Amino acid sequence: MNINKGFLPIRMYELFIIVVILLPIAWTLGYFNGRKAAKRKVSDNQVGFSKKYFVGLNYLLNEESDKAIDTFVSMLEVDSETVETHLALGNLFRRRGEVDRAIRIHQNLIARPSLTSAHRKMSLLELGYDYMAAGLLDRAENIFRELVREQAHKTASLKQLLQIYQQMKDWESAIQVAEKLQVDASGSLKTEIAHFYCEMAENRLYIEKQPKEAQQFIKKALNVDAYCARATLISGDIEYSLGRYKHAVKAYRELVKQDIELLPEAIEKIKSSFYQLNDKKGLAVFLQNAIEQGAGVSCILSYAEEVRHVKGDRAAGEYIAYQMSQHPSVKGLLKLIELHLKHASESAQPSLKMLQDVVSKLLENKPIYHCGQCGFDSKTLFWQCPGCKSWGSVKPIQGIEGE
Questions:
Q1: Roughly what angle, to the nearest 10 degrees, separates helices 297-311 and 330-343?
Q2: Rounded CA gap, 44 and 28, in Å?
Q3: Residue of 6, 31, 202, 328 with fewest CB within 10 Å of its CB?
Q4: Contact (Cβ atoms closer than 8 angstroms) between residue 399 and residue 246
Q5: Residue 75, number of CB atoms within 10 A of its CB
Q6: What element of type H or E holds 378?
C-alpha cells in the first residue's frame, strides 16, 4: 500500500502510523484467541476484545483519533511480545508532544510485575526521556542516576545527566559527569569542561565579587583546555578588576593569538588598561598588531580614534576610508559619516544626517553574533548557543555587516 504523507493531514498521518503498529498485534492476539476458542467456549474477554476492536475502528472512521488510540492501546496485553510495541507508541507520543500519554504508557510498563529486568530498564530509560521532555528534571535525574550503574544504559544516562546539570547550572556536577562521560564514550569533552569552569569563574567574579577565587577556576579551565579563549578573556577581566593593568594587557595579548574574533569583547578594557598605564603609544602598537593579524572593525575604529587625538579628524577619516576600501564595513561607514558631518557645509549636513540615520537604523536591526554550528543569530553573546546547545560556537559576525 502506497501512502503519500503529503496528501494526509499531519495528525491523520501519525494516526495511520499508530494503526500500522497496532493492527498486526491485534490480528495476532485475535488469531491466538481464535485457536483457543476452538478448544473451549468463547470467553467474556474475547467478546470484550472484539467489542473494543470495533469500537476503536468506529472512533477511527469518525476521526476521533484520541479515543481510537486509547482504545487500541487498551487492547494490548503487556507481555514479552508487545513490550516493544508499547515502547514504540510511547516514543511516538513523546515526539508528538503528548508527553503525558508517553509517561502513562511507560509507567504502566514499569508497574507490570511480569516484566523482565531488561525490559524494565528500557522502559525506565524511556520514562526518563519523557520526564526530560516534560521539564521534570528532578525526576529524570533520579532515573538516570539509577541507570548509570547499568553498563547497557550508562553512556545514554550520563549524556542526559550532563544536559540536566547544564540546565540546572550545577556546574560542579556537570564537570563530574563530563569527566566520566569522556572516559566512558572515548571522546573529548575538554571544551565543555573548560566552559563549565568559566561559568563558575564568572559567578565568582561578576556576582560574588571574588576575583581571586575566580582566578582559581580559570587556572583549572586552562589546564583542561589551554586554547580556551573565554578563559583567557575572563583572566584579563580578573586582572583588570584587581587594578593589575600590565597583567590584564598580557592576558589580552594571548586572546589575539587564541581567538582574535573575540577581541571586540575586551576592546574597552584594553584601551582603559593602557590609559591607566599612561601608555598611549603602547595602545597604538597593540591595535596595529591586532589589525595586521586580522582584527575587525572595532580595533580599526579604536585605532582611528587614537589617530584623531594625535592628528585630527581629517587624518582619522582618511585612515578609516582606506581601511573601508580594503575591508568594507557598515560600522566603519557610520563612523566616517560622523567625522564628515562635523566639518560639512550647511547645505551638505541634512543629506549626511539623513544618511547617518539610515545607517544607524540598519545597524540597530542587525544581529551582532552568529553561531557557526546552527546559524543562530542574536544581539547578545551566548557562550552556549541557545539553538544547538554547543559551547563556544557563537562569535561576533564578520564581514560588511559585522566585524
A1: 20
A2: 18
A3: 6
A4: no
A5: 18
A6: strand 377-378
Q: What would the grid cell of residue 312 be?
A: 585630527
Q: What is the pLDDT along the chain (403 residues), one digit of tens a residue?
A: 444 444 344 455 555 555 555 555 554 545 444 444 444 444 444 444 455 555 555 654 565 656 656 665 555 555 556 677 778 888 888 988 989 988 988 998 888 888 889 989 999 999 999 999 999 999 999 999 999 999 999 999 999 999 999 999 999 999 999 999 988 766 789 999 999 999 999 999 999 999 999 999 999 999 999 999 999 999 999 999 999 999 999 999 999 999 999 999 999 999 999 999 999 999 999 999 999 999 999 999 999 999 999 999 999 999 999 998 888 889 988 998 888 888 778 888 888 888 888 888 888 888 999 999 999 999 999 999 999 999 999 999 988 888 8
Length of the chain: 403
DSSP letter string over 178-197? HHHHHHHTT---HHHHHHHH
Architecture label for domain 188-278 = Alpha Horseshoe (1.25)
Reading the block at residue 24, the C-alpha cell is 498486526
* Residue keyed to cell 474477554: 45
Distance of CA 389 to the CA centre of its chain: 2
Per the confidence metrics, is the pTM higher than 0.85? no
Q: Where are the alpha helices (DSSP H) in 76-170?
A: 83-96, 99-110, 117-134, 137-147, 154-167
Around Cβ 227, how many Cβ atoms within 10 Å?
14
Interaxial angle between packed helices 117-134 and 137-147, expressed in degrees from 0 to 180 and rounded to the nearest 10: 150
3-state secondary structure of 347: coil
* Beta bridge partners of residue 384, listed in sequence order: 391
Beta bridge partners of 371: 394
Place of cell 586554547: 227
Q: Are 195 and 222 in contact (CB under 8 A)?
A: no
Q: What residue ranges do the domains of the chain occupy? A: 188-278, 367-403
> In what helix (H) or strand (E) does residue 15 lie, and over which residues does it extend?
helix 10-39
The β-bridge partners of 391 are 384
291 in Cβ contact with 299 (< 8 Å): yes
Question: Residue 230 corresponds to which cell in the numbers above?
Answer: 573565554
CA distance 274 to 261: 21
